[in-house]
Amino acid sequence: xxxxxxxxxxxxxxxxxxxFLNYDANSLVISDSPxxxxxxxxxxxxxxxxxxxIDGKNNAFVQANYNSQKKxxxxxxxxxxxxxxxxxxxxxxxxxxxxxxxxxVKLFYQNHxxxxxxxxxxxxxxLNSGNYQTYRENNLFLxxxxxxxxxxNQAISTLANNKKCxxxxxxxxxxxxxxxxxxxxxxxxxxxxxxxxxINHTI
Length: 203
Known about the structure:
The protein is an alpha+beta fold. The protein has helices at residues 8-20, 53-65, 72-81, 112-127, 149-164, and strands spanning 29-30, 36-38, 43-49, 93-99, 104-110, 137-143, 177-181, 185-190, 195-200. It has one domain (1-203). The protein is 33% helix and 25% strand. The strands form two sheets. A seven-stranded mixed beta sheet has the order 1-2-3-6-7-8-9. A hairpin with a 4-residue loop joins strand 4 and strand 5. Helix 4 (112-127) packs across helix 5 (149-164). The longest helix has 16 residues, at 112-127. Mean pLDDT is 78; it is low at 53-57, 66-70 and 83-110.
């Protein structure tokens, strides 16, 4: 059943799925557990925003300075300017954000990998909770706007290692695909944590 008050993330995920991932706009509806459901094609998609406090400040700054009439690419460019493409440090990257209140620039060391893994495991447990409508195909959509490719690859590698260690083997239901919506690309990741497709969403 369609939900009366969908979130912005759910609306955005539905539009992205239909535009870039070949979902049927006429049959995909916003619901709950999972957030997107297509009974006709027997597929469900759960949606999660992978965002920590630093990312939240980045996005708040962008939203305050780039209104909804601006193109998506302009917002992405603004976020990218705040994301230092520097040297990899352990499992994190140095990030930068502009504090609009004092108009200064601060550097942050931030670990995105744990945030990604926590989001995946939280939704995987929900999929197996018994309070979730399962379909022939069960997918997970993760908004990772502030992630770059190295961070996505490291997050995937962590999940793959967890699977090799049988961390998820006790759970009968698994996600067929993860859609990681990052800076410039949507990464389509299969159940073995291989990137099957990389789609440029800024074109």
